[in-house]
Write a structure and sequence with these properties.
By secondary structure, the chain is of the alpha/beta class. Helix content is 25%, strand content 25%. Helix 9 runs parallel beside helix 11.
């Protein structure tokens, strides 16, 4: 009989080590390596008598490809992110912070599918049936014919599902609570999560059911468990949101059947998640007009233009190393903008603490926000309010030049639709226009700084050093 192989697996990243050690060399986490009993050791090649492989026909790149069929959830923001709806036979992994609304979102999707006659099953390993029913009653979904199952053993779950026709949607909440008898490990360990996912994946591919797995996230926002699970599934979604905001953002981090640059915006209310059809209007609803340090950025999330407020604050510091605090943007990008402002434009922020915030809890990743961030920083330093009816977008290079960004026309159209009358864009966008919008093009960041300094109130804080001008 073959000996059982013992391995040491990191519970944070899934890396396998030959022996136990305090720190995982793959992800740097401490005290996350656990001894686990794996499969029996492999038999030497000389003792194996495997069958010969069969010849498989090779195909060419040329040929027709049918579009993957879709099952619409009835939630337009959700369908936008996944590419039009669930694909039969696919496996989706949804991650997010505790309490962000993952279970609420999926039970609403299951209820909408069940309401149109499709079989939907909700498997819960964290809550009792009564708790799920209470949530459904609060959301007004108690009459939806969703099938509930409180079970954590994967073999029992699959046997129950196979007893009837395959459902269109199976929700597993959460994958960390599932366990299988095929491996000897505690539920939630890397080995159990990986083995349970493999069994559910095989069920989805053989029956055509769409399986959605809910996953916990770590302190860093990564989906907990082995990263190999993300490679096994077809789609990885992230449900994000700040605790103090009602807005929730659904993003696709991986999607084999659709785009990965779309976002869905929801608002958490007492009756569940409400779709936000016009996120720009919602993110700009509470902005303070005429306040220094605020600029409106016209961004693009997938195919959707999105306007959001950038807030900046520059305060004199007594610390040897000024503080740089960023919420919703890349801190390294902020450091680059500060260096360009000081080296190319003479704006000295080295003696100031700098705080930057993207209003509404949104996270921006595109470099087109550089110009809006720079304008907000100079406005905060000089005390000069930016025009309340102006939007900004453009990428700033290390030379101080303002470079072109894609989809300028869509950004301007959205700004004009929301009542803005001015836009400051890169020089390469000359000729782009929108009805009722005056477009100002700039070639370098120094031109933006010069305009703000010229309009600064007197007496004002000097840009070069922070002292008062007489």
């Amino acid at each position: 009989m073959a000996k059982t192989r013992t391995s040491y697996v990191c519970q944070a990243c899934g890396a396998v080590h030959a022996r136990w050690q305090g720190k995982c060399e793959a992800c740097g986490a401490w005290n996350t390596i656990v001894e686990e009993a794996g499969a029996p050791a492999a038999v030497p090649a000389a003792q194996r008598t495997g069958r010969k492989g069969r010849v498989v026909r090779l195909e060419t790149l040329k040929g027709g490809g049918a579009e993957a069929p879709r099952i619409s959830t009835g939630i337009s923001e959700f369908d936008r992110v996944v590419g039009g709806g669930f694909v039969p036979g696919s496996v989706v992994l949804l991650g997010g912070d505790p309490g962000i609304g993952k279970s609420t979102l999926l039970i609403e999707a299951a209820a909408k599918l069940a309401a149109v006659g499709k079989r939907a099953a909700y498997v819960t390993g964290e809550e009792a049936i009564a708790q799920v029913r209470m949530r459904a009653e609060r959301l007004g979904l108690a009459d939806a014919p969703v099938e509930l199952l409180a079970e954590t053993n994967v073999e029992d779950v699959l046997a129950t599902l196979k007893a009837d026709e395959p459902p269109a949607l199976v929700v597993v909440d959460s994958i960390q609570t599932m366990w299988t008898e095929t491996v000897e490990s505690a539920p939630g360990t890397v080995t159990q999560v990986r083995a349970s996912t493999q069994l559910l994946l095989r069920y989805a591919k053989t029956t055509g059911a769409c399986v959605v797995l809910i996953g916990h996230v770590t302190k860093e926002g990564q989906i907990a468990g082995p990263r190999v699970v993300e490679h096994m599934v077809d789609t990885v979604l992230s449900f994000e949101g700040e605790g103090g905001h009602a807005f929730r953002i659904l993003r696709a981090l991986k999607n084999r059947f659709g785009p990965t640059d779309e976002i869905g915006v929801f608002e958490m209310t007492g009756l569940g998640l409400k779709e936000v059809a016009n996120p720009s209007e919602l993110f700009l609803a509470e902005r303070n007009l005429g306040t220094p340090g605020t600029a409106v950025f016209a961004g693009i999330e997938g195919t959707r233009p999105l306007l959001v407020e950038i807030q900046a604050l520059a305060a004199p510091t007594t610390l040897g190393t000024p503080r740089r605090a960023v919420v919703g943007w890349d801190p390294n990008r902020l450091s680059m903008i500060l260096a360009v402002l000081e080296a190319r434009c003479g704006v000295r922020l080295s003696g100031h603490d700098v705080y930057l915030n993207v209003a509404g809890g949104l996270r921006i990743v595109e470099p087109a926000a550089d110009l809006a961030v720079a304008a907000a920083l100079v406005s905060a330093l000089t005390g000069t309010p930016l025009p309340a009816d102006a939007v900004y977008f453009g990428e700033v290079s290390l030379s101080g030049a303002v470079r072109a960004v894609p989809q300028a026309a869509a950004r301007l159209k959205e700004a004009g639709k929301l009542g803005f009358t001015r836009a400051m864009i890169p020089e390469s966008g000359r000729g782009a226009s929108a009805e009722g919008l005056k477009v100002v093009t700039v070639a370098s960041l120094s031109a933006v700084v010069a305009d703000l300094v010229a309009r600064a109130p007197r007496p004002r804080r000097s840009v070069a050093g922070g002292a008062e001008d007489g």
